[in-house]
What we know:
By secondary structure, the protein is an alpha+beta fold. It has twelve helices and 16 strands. Strand 1 and strand 2 (69-73) form a beta hairpin.
Amino acid sequence: MRPGVTTSLSVDGARLMRRIRTxxxxxxxxGGGCNRLALTDADRDGRDLVVAWMKELGLxxxxxxxxxxxxVWEVGSGAPVMTGSHIDTVRTGGMYDGNYGVLAGLEVIESxxxxxxxxxxxxxxxxxxxxxxARFAPDMLGSLVYVGGMSVESAHDVVGIDGARLGxxxxxxGYLGATPCPGRIPHAFVELHxxxxxxxxxxxxxxxxVTGVQGISWQEVxxxxxxxxxxxxxxxxxxxxxxxxxxxTVFVRDLAERYGGNQVCTVGKIDVHPNLTNVVASRVAxxxxxxxxxxEILQKAEAEIAEYCATLADLEGVSVTRRSLARFEPVIFDxxxxxxxxxxxxxxxxxxxxxxxxxxxxxxxxARVCPSGMIFVPSHKGLSHNVNEHTDExxxxxxxxxxxxTMLQLTEFQL
Length: 415
Ligand code: HGY
Ligand code: MN
Ligand code: MN
């Protein structure tokens, strides 16, 4: 197929939606949403379903040593044009985050097969392990190992928030594969994903041509104080980690307000021990998720937080220890792919705008080894990591058509 020639081919929207809804039944939360934390039984069931669909399409399916699933339509020659995403979810996830990109990749292949279009390169769909990082940090763990950014051994030794070891969970669910990591390097990688933010909907634009991903800094902060009686301990004698956790929570919120721009800070997890009404806690473990599109500003935020933790420790007579859970610098996508997404969307008659991604994605890891990019579609009210996550079907289908054209044109690109 010659570059610049869009196909008259379109995906089968009904079939795509059927797959999305069928996968959403796995780990379904009563009332809506999905709970398929990485390497749980629900994740296994979701994986089994997607692998079965891949095999129905005649794809060559491999499972690697960190559980990444790659289905390849082995046509043409050379390195594949790859798409994909993840099917693990957060505990209160929606039905589109990650799932949409994987299933649209299958839909692109099935649409080509149905139309007798045989690309000049193989087409691949990746299902990357533990993209969310919600159970096993860091996020994008599977794609990070796939591109050689983390050793398989280190990944296997990661201990989850429930005390499970990643390698053992992989084995337990039957997805400790034999295909080595780093994985097969694609000719190019493009990921289709919901925006998970409000910008496209507010701007009334259908397609996002994603320019890159902001920097991510996750850390676990452990505050050790002194448990004591809530009734008898005078306030000035307390070593109260819960107070320190609250002060730190307010501090990072204020820091984000002070910095403005793209700065975001989140305290998403707080565990208090012994977590009882009449006990001044002995320990609090909490997480900080701090992000910015500019590396230098992200480092400045990290330094301010470290200094404030030391100050609090002195003032309150507690110990504060910090452990990095994830640290990824901002990533810029290949402008040729960003431009291609813009052009293809325009040729399809879709409104399109360039934009950064606030969320982390597997594409930011593939960008380490091949030209990579992303396509966004709107999220209703910007909601995600929320059971009410929603994207209109017409937008989902439009995004899949942009993925179709982008992948087929990438098969002809000399990158
Ligand atoms: O954390 C993230 O941005 C992604 O959802 N894993
Ligand atoms: Mn995602
Ligand atoms: Mn997510």
